[in-house]
From TrEMBL:
Protein name: ABC-type quaternary amine transporter
Superkingdom of source: Bacteria
GO cellular component: ATP-binding cassette (ABC) transporter complex
GO MF annotation: an example: ATP binding
Amino acid sequence: MLLSLDAATVRLGGRAVLDAVGLDVAEHEVVCVLGPSGSGKSTLLRAVAGLQPLDSGRVLLDGREQTHVPAHKRGMGLMFQDHQLFPQRDVGANVAFGLRMHGVAKDERDAEVGQLLELVGLPGAARRAVASLSGGEQQRVALARALAPRPQLLMLDEPLGQLDRSLRERLVVELRELFGRLGTTVLAVTHDQGEAFALADRVVVMRDGRIAQSGTPLEVWQRPADAFVARFLGFDNVVGATVTGAVADSPWGKLPVPDGSAQGARTVLVRPAGIRLVAADQGLPCTVTARTFRGTHVAVRLQPERAPWLEAACALRDAPELGGVVGVEFDVSETVVLD
C-alpha cells in the first residue's frame, strides 16, 4: 500500500476527533473521504499531511513511518479549498514554486510549468496575474502547483467547494480523467456526495472520528452500512422493522424485502425510486405534502396517516397534485435491509 493509517488517533480537548482509524490507499487509487462537519475527515487529511500530530497510531507512506517526518519532507501535494495562491506572483511562478524549492533549474522549471498548464487546460497562461483568473482558473493553477513536484500522494481538501455547481460538475469529470491519465494517487476530503462518487475509486464515509463505511461508490450507494450512512447519502425512507422471511413488518405496513435478507429487528431502506404511486384504495394511503423539482425528476413527499413520511421520485408528467391522496406500493428491488 502506498498510504496506510494504523490506529491513527487525534484528541482535541479530551475528545477523540480521530478515533483509532485504519485506512489503506493503494498506488494509483483515488479515495474520497466523506462525512458531515465534525466527523474527522479534515483532521484525517491534516494528520496524513503532517499538519496535525497524532496522539497515537501511525501514518506510513510506501511502508515508511512518517510520524517524525515534517510536512514539507513527506513528498505529498496538498490543494486547499481556498487555493492559497500567491497573489503577488504570476501563474507561472505559482506553479513553479514547488519545483524551485526542490532546486530544479529555471529552464527545466519553465518547460515543466508549460506542460502542467497545458495539462490542466490553461495553455499559455504562465504570465497572467492571479487576480485576473476566475475561480475555476485559480483551481486549475492550484492543481498544477500541487502536481508540479510529482508527489507520491496528492491530497485535496474540499477541492471544488467554492465553485458554482455547473463548473464543479465539469471540473470533477476533468479531474477524474486527469488523475487516470497521470496515474496519480489521491486522497480527497469533501462533504459533497456527488463530487465524491464521480471522482473516487473508493468512498470512505466518516462519523464521529471513525470510518462508518468504505467501499466502491456503487457498493456504498447500493448497500449503505447503516441508517446513518443511508441518511447522509440523502435517503430519507429509513425505518425500523422486523424482518421475517421475505417480509418486513414496518410502520408503513408489510414491505417485501430481498431473499436472503438479515432477519429480526433491523433497519430498512426504501429508495425513492422504489415508492410506486397507485390509486389511494390500492396501497398505503398518503397525502401529498410537498413537490420539489429536481431536474431529472420530481421529489414528492408523502404523509401516511400514522407513520413517518416518505419520499417518492416521479417523472414530471406523473407527479401528483399537492394535497392529493395517493396509494403507495413498495418495489422489492429498491428495498435494502441494513445490517
